[in-house]
Design a protein that fits this description.
The complex is a heterodimer of chains A (434) and B (333). Chain A has 434 residues and is an alpha/beta fold. Chain A contains twelve helices and 16 strands. In chain A, helix 2 packs across helix 8 and helix 10 packs parallel to helix 11. The chains are: A alpha/beta (434), B mainly beta (333). Chains A and B meet through helix 11 of A and strand 1 and strand 18 of B.
């Protein structure tokens, strides 16, 4: 099926093959050096660059993973299901027996158990949880990836600022990456059909010279067209063309076969594992934000079978990612977030399923300025409601921003209207920040 | 004596329960039953009592998914991986066995009461001496991972009427028939339609073989589960039964289901082999009767709960179904 748009946003409706195919190959070779791994580990970076060293990998558990079968078990309660809780390496903190590997790594991870986000509808909840707030009629907010691309991306970066994997089809349209009012410059590179960006290679029937000449011509015509005009769309489009050179050079970052076999074996053979390994390669090369979408957790029927199948994979991949980042000395600079659009009902239906539930569910944050081993929020004995330290989407986002060294009260401007990164009055959760 | 006609099926009693009952064992020729439940407890109850009030016997550490009677010994198994052996006459625990590394799915007793069999998600079928509790066989014939590298599950097990055969069925539709005495595999059958792997929309699976039953002559093996599912968020596939000549692995009959959605969790043959009954469900439940020889459904009855297990009396005149928050008794004949 032809792919009509790189980012999916209305502002950027160019055919990706067309614009990538019209870009100078000479520039590719210039960009190549910028995509080497270990850019983060380069010595001599000053404090001013510290903020831009931060990176985020979001493990997006689409469809709504169950908090009761992961990070907030209620063994023995009528709502608790069949799985036991197990001890972790943090005294007093128990998680589901389906996560034995993470149980040995909770000292790196903060659990937020008090999410009450009010919305149990897949589509609108996904939009809220990707943005930290609901869109307004007049303002389409940028999502987390777009904000971090803006705040942590480098102007001269030759790698994408925001990459999102979402290969399964269910729920994909409900949670697209969206730069909102920030424009197409911060829109994601979306990978939906494979782990490798489509159309990233120069077409075989276009020579290097042709490629460069087309780029030069486009640039000339573009400058003539823009002269005397002022448009965010035009500006975004030109920026996108500029960045294509770097993106084309970054193709190897997506090639998981570039990793040693023992590293690939460590992550495992599943699609989620491979995409998470690529995410690690991307953040290592300087990409500020990567979302790895793992659908589909919507277990209305057979909740326990579904979680028996999917949670061990999450457990293994998350634990491996933590180990890998730690081994590379990157855990202080790379944040791992697990998040869904909501959790699942404590009550168990006749199909042994759990339904949508946004009143008391869990998320985790690991690394990068977050207090490992901390647990914030408490739910009641059956998991029906939050009884202490309630968290909403806004305060979760404020916490993420602050941990990354970004002021949540910072304003963007939509026209002359100041728009802070989180809604006014929303505070970060200081208790989980280092 | 010919089995009663399924057309005579009628509901007789119905009890509401606050818990989900996953397993039932009935003491032969009595109204005494033993129940394994979602509150981790095992109960005994008298179905003939004016008010059915099951009495708590003991507790597992998780869902109790199987109960079986071998003479006067009750054996229960659960998601805690343990088997608890209970003397029903003395009213005391005999022993606890750490039987499996993962979740126990079913516990059954041999027809002569000399053996107990447990199956679990460690993909082991373990045969135990009912009197001593010693392991007789550890049968391994099912892969631990699905072809898609996710954990598999071992859901179903049954004895033949003469006790010489065992059959086990797993998540991906693989069935192994075992020689009980030798502890060796005799044959395999495949029912892949029972397993739905959604590789594109949702990237996980649903289904699996949930029930097995040998025909009274031991020549045919009925396999129950659910047909292919479009939206695997729900148990929306049709309740499905296939019947095999297990020696050749050839499918003889399939009942793809035309009325009810959900899993067929239990199967049993009429004692004269004239019909096969299956029960299960999704949001609601069903009892379905098949004439296997004529390859047709005889009776399809809605039940007001997802049925997880049933016990049919030896004369097939009564079926006690247990499941989601209810227990229902049907009479035949």
């Amino acid at each position: 099926m032809p792919r009509s748009s790189h980012c999916g946003s209305p502002e950027h409706s160019l055919n990706r093959r067309a614009f990538l195919g019209a870009t100078g190959a000479a520039s590719v070779s210039l960009a190549a050096d910028m995509t080497q791994l270990n850019a983060l580990a380069s010595p001599g970076v000053n404090d001013a660059l510290k903020k831009t060293q931060k990176r985020v990998i979001l493990l997006w558990l689409a469809g709504g993973a169950s908090q009761l079968e992961t990070f907030d078990p209620k063994p023995g309660a009528s709502t608790g299901g069949p799985f036991r809780a197990i001890k972790t390496d943090v005294p007093g903190v128990m998680i589901s027996e389906l996560m034995p590997k993470m149980a040995q790594r909770m000292k790196h991870t903060c659990i937020l158990r008090g999410l009450d986000t009010k919305n149990g509808d897949h589509g609108s909840a996904a939009i809220t949880m990707m943005r930290g707030r609901r869109n307004e009629a007049a303002v389409r907010y940028p999502d987390l990836g777009a904000v971090l691309a803006r705040e942590m991306g480098r102007a001269d970066s030759k790698v994408p600022d925001y990459v999102t994997f979402y290969t399964q089809t269910e729920g994909r349209s409900m949670a697209p990456g969206d730069a909102g009012f920030l424009g197409a410059r911060y829109a994601p590179m979306e990978l939906t059909n494979s782990n490798y960006p489509e159309f990233i290679k120069r077409l075989a029937d276009i020579s290097d010279l042709d490629h460069k000449e087309r780029s030069d011509l486009r640039e000339l015509l573009g400058k003539q067209f823009v002269a005397g005009r002022s448009s965010e769309t035009l500006s975004s489009q030109n920026e996108a063309y500029e960045r294509v050179r770097g993106i084309m050079a970054s193709e190897k970052l997506f090639d998981v076969t570039q990793e040693p076999q023992k590293v690939r074996d460590r992550y495992g053979p599943t699609q989620f594992a491979e995409q998470t390994l690529i995410a690690r390669r991307l953040v290592e090369a300087g990409v500020p934000f990567v979302r790895v979408g793992r659908a589909w957790w919507d277990s209305h029927g057979q909740n326990f079978e579904t979680h028996q199948e999917m949670v061990p994979e999450l457990d293994h991949v998350m634990a491996t990612l933590i180990d890998d980042l730690k081994d590379r000395g990157m855990l202080d600079d790379v944040m791992i977030v697990t998040l869904s659009e909501f959790g699942r009902t404590p009550s168990i239906n006749a199909s042994l399923g759990r339904d949508h539930f946004a009143s008391a569910w869990s998320s985790t944050i690991t690394g990068c300025g977050i207090k490992g081993g901390s647990v914030y929020g408490k739910t009641d004995d059956k998991g029906n409601k939050v009884v202490a330290e309630q968290v909403d989407a806004g305060s979760l986002f404020a916490t993420i921003y602050e941990a990354l060294g970004i002021n949540p009260e910072k304003n963007y401007y939509v026209g002359s209207r100041p728009v802070p990164l989180v809604n006014p009055g929303i505070q970060a959760i200081k208790q989980v920040l280092k | 004596m010919p089995a009663p006609n399924p057309d005579t099926l009628k509901p007789a009693k119905d009890f509401s329960r606050s818990v989900i009952t996953f397993g039932i064992a009935r003491k032969a020729n009595t109204d005494n039953v033993f129940l394994g439940c979602s509150d981790f407890k095992v109960y005994s109850g008298d179905l003939s009592a004016a008010k059915f009030e099951p009495k708590e016997l003991y507790t597992h550490e998780s869902y109790v998914t199987g109960v079986a009677l071998a003479g006067t010994t009750l054996v229960s198994g659960g998601y805690d991986g343990k088997l608890i052996w209970w003397d029903t006459e003395a009213g005391k625990q005999i022993r606890t066995t750490d039987a499996h590394a993962k979740w126990i799915r079913k516990v059954i007793a041999s027809p002569d009461g000399r053996l107990i069999v447990s199956i679990a998600d460690d993909m082991a079928c373990k045969v135990w001496d009912a009197k001593t509790g010693k392991l007789v066989h550890d049968l391994r014939g099912h892969k631990e991972k699905t072809p898609n590298d996710f954990p598999s599950m071992l859901y179903a097990v049954t004895f033949s009427a003469d006790g010489n055969l065992l059959a086990t069925g797993d998540k991906v539709g693989h069935v192994v028939v075992w020689d009980v005495k030798e502890g060796k595999p005799l044959a395999t059958c495949e029912a892949p339609v029972m397993y739905t792997w959604d590789k594109q929309q949702r990237l996980h699976s649903i289904g699996g073989i949930r029930s097995l039953a040998f025909s009274p002559d031991g020549k045919q093996l009925a396999v129950g589960g659910m047909g292919k599912v479009g939206n695997i968020d729900h148990l929306e596939g049709k309740a499905r039964v296939e019947v095999f000549d297990w020696k050749t692995g050839k499918q003889l009959v399939e009942f793809p289901g035309d009325k009810f959605a959900g899993l067929v969790n239990k199967l049993a043959w009429a004692p004269d082999g004239s019909w096969l009954v299956g029960a299960g469900g999704a949001g609601e439940g069903f009892l379905v009767f098949f004439d296997v020889a004529a390859k047709k459904a005889l009776r399809q009855e809605k039940v007001m709960m997802h049925v997880h297990d049933f016990e049919m009396t030896a004369d097939a005149k009564e079926i006690v179904s247990v499941g989601h928050n209810r227990i229902t008794i049907h009479k035949l004949g």
